[in-house]
Amino acid sequence: DIVMTQSPLSLPVTPGEPASISCRSSQSLLHSNGYIYLDWYVQKPGQSPQVLIYMGSNRASGVPDRFSGSGAGTDFTLKISRVEAEDVGVYYCMQTVQGRTFGQGTKVEIK
Amino acid sequence: QVQLQESGPGLVKPSETLSLTCTVSGGSLTNYYWSWIRQPTGKGLEWIGYIYYSGNTNYSPSLKSRLTMSVDTSKNQFSLKLTSVTAADTAVYYCARLLATAVPGATYNYHYIHVWGKGTTVTVSS
């Protein structure tokens, strides 16, 4: 099984400042087609999760461009260029190259 | 737009079978993958598995021996059965629809979770 490890697990942020979440996988998420098989989701308080990024770096429809995904092999990053108050929630990475496995989640909260 | 609604018993006894149904409204099951995900109270998300509308399945290795998913296209529903439950199966259970997107240069698609139900809480307790 592929294990996904996120850091930090808690991230206090200041509105207007950038934020970054790391996600590491125990095996490469590079598919034989050359694309990264990793998604990012956010679960806002009291809500069901929603997709932010798919295939490593593709923003889902309706996702603000302040969110970006990057990475290769086993190391990946979700970046928020300028955090807004509405970005509070728990962020999860999920690998999709071999079944599906979520990371533990990173709780983003306003300082 | 498509909406998903989970339903089933909120309380299941240990060693019994947990059965949940997801009813899809505003869209068809056809040509989509459908998934179950769960979240123990105060914890992270755990992928349970997915099923294609035709019945093909992919289960989490840790749950595979106890898990059965099925689709009923006539009722626009898909279901989950988890046998021999324990307290560790207590969680909010979400159903979800996967969206297909083209993979450049490939003849197959990439699928990501696009629509989620609101979730239903299942407690395993005697």
Structure description:
Chain A has no helices and 11 strands. By secondary structure, chain A is mostly beta strands. Chain B has 126 residues and is an all-beta fold. In chain B, strands 2, 4, 5, 6, 9, 10 and 11 form a 7-stranded mixed sheet that branches. In chain B, strands 1-3-8-7 form a 4-stranded antiparallel sheet, with no helix packed on it. The mean pLDDT of chain B is 96. The chains are: A mainly beta (111), B mainly beta (126).
SSE topology sketch:
The complex is a heterodimer of chains A (111) and B (126).
Chain A: E1 4-7, E2 10-13, E3 19-25, E4 38-43, E5 50-54, E6 58-59, E7 67-72, E8 75-80, E9 89-95, E10 101-102, E11 106-110
Parallel strand pairs in A: 2-11
Antiparallel strand pairs in A: 1-3, 3-8, 4-5, 4-9, 5-6, 7-8, 9-10, 9-11
Chain B: E1 3-7, E2 11-12, E3 18-25, E4 33-39, E5 46-52, E6 57-59, E7 67-72, E8 77-82, E9 91-102, E10 109-116, E11 120-124
Parallel strand pairs in B: 2-11
Antiparallel strand pairs in B: 1-3, 3-8, 4-5, 4-9, 5-6, 7-8, 9-10, 9-11
Q: Keywords, please?
A:
heterodimer, A: 111 residues, mainly beta, 4-stranded antiparallel sheet, B: 126 residues, 7-stranded mixed sheet, 11 strands, 0% helix
- Rg of chain A: 13 Å
Oligomer: heterodimer
| Main sheet makeup of chain A | 7 strands, mixed
Unreliable spans of chain A are: none
Globally, the shape of chain B reads globular
Summarize the structure.
The complex is a heterodimer of chains A (111) and B (126). Chain A is mostly beta strands.
